[in-house]
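Record format v2
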Amino acid sequence: MTSALVTAAQPVTTHGFLSSSGVEIAFLLVGLVTLGAAVVTVTTRQLVHAALWLVVALGGLAVEYLLLTAEFIAWVQVLIYVGSVVVLLLFGLMLTKAPIGRSPDANVPNRLPALGVAAAAAAALVWVVADAFRTTWIDLDGAPQGTTKVSGEILFRHWVLPFEALSVLLLAALVGAVVLSRLRNQQEQQEQGQQEEEQS
Amino acid sequence: MSSGIVDVVVRLLAVFVAFLVLPLVVGQTEHKVMAHMQGRLGPMYAGGFHGWAQLVADGVKFAQKEDVVPADADRRVFQLAPAVALLPYLLVLLAVPLGPGGAVGQVLDAGVFFVLAVMGVGVLGSLMAGWASANKFSLLGGLRTAAQLLAYELPMLLAAASVAMAAGTVSLPGIVDAFHWWWVPWQIVGGLVFFTAGLAELQRPPFDMPVADSEIIFGAYTEYTGLRFALFLLAEYAGIVVLCGLTTVLFLGGWHGPFGADGLGWLWTLLKTAVLAFVVIWLRVSYPRLREDQLQKLAWTVLIPLALAQIALTGVVKVVIQ
């Protein structure tokens, strides 16, 4: 226990908190931009603008990954979230309701409770992450520690079971979505058939 | 240190010049090739020799036109959209290797993911344009663009993943380094899927439903004029260059060729890219436009199963040869 504490505490002495190197300053600035974009995303009254600010926030996160030398994670972040999730969001918005200008009904009455929940969740997350990784440092000057090779080895050596469990979960969701959509179609067809029979 | 900076500046300049010149070359080739395939001459007067300066003249014309923003449009998004559509292709061009030994704008560890991720961002420009124009045709075009992207992103990714599996790396120069001639028959299905899905993502004929002129005028770009409209057109041709370059690098062996291995590698890359660009133009002249349901059906019931089969084949062969 004490030896673990000593080895864990040792890096702290060599790294001052925010020892303003160039990368750390950039990290902080990009973080501020990301946070600002995220706040605008949830406060703006213009629906499509919210989706576009979300692009900025997610892109900012990708830049943060890059600054932490996790190149693979950064590009996957862009590919999945900016390239697919936001496109899906915009598609949904355009398909339903996407007026130019403010949406008067975008004002939700339970704003304050939502703010409370968001603040509590953020506080819990920040506390847990900060507490868990307080003593872990990434050597930004050395060889990249988040290359595709390293990520792949960690994922498929140490985290194979969670990875496979996740893929089963996603498969179940996919099959469920297909079943649900087909079920509704069949019901509608049956109802239509009945109506036609009644009419005839 | 200073030589490092000079090196970076030279690379960036070279990529930028290629980004400005190659799309125009493809555009001019399209004018001439389409004309000759249809028994016409195409542009003949601009610049004197066979109308070589036609696109330069077009550029001057576009720059002189008034830049109109519709009264009801969302001004900022409307004006930002062409940049969002064009810039991703410039970034992608940075990562496409031209020749062996580091003849590439920027070596990236996860190059395949980088190019696919950034190419997907370009479509956001069309979506922004479609929404911000306050025009029902534009909105319909934007919707069709989004639906098309969602359908064709997956087969493209799967086909690229197959090559990455075969090479054992996701870096673009690494993939070309690992290339052998028998990869062409091995990965041919994946290559066809990648190229087709790429065409659909660029909204080139026969996948140009989002800009179908007989139905929705010019889709998301209907309200654009002048230079911003020209930027959208430039994005389309830059997209052709990028797609053909990527197909060359991933499936056709990039700088590998039957002879001239030393020093002439970049010529092979350019030659293969040019042949593919010719095929893109050829397809435009040959095939009628696919209907919206045919588009979706092709992606989900043909391309994705083919890509999955290619991945299975790649895995089996990879295990056998090891």
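The mean pLDDT of chain B is 85.
The interface with chain A takes residues 72-74, 77, 108-110, 113-114, 116-118, 120-121, 123-124, 127-128, 130-132, 134, 139, 142-143, 146-147, 149-150, 153, 157, 169-171 of chain B (CB under 8 Å).
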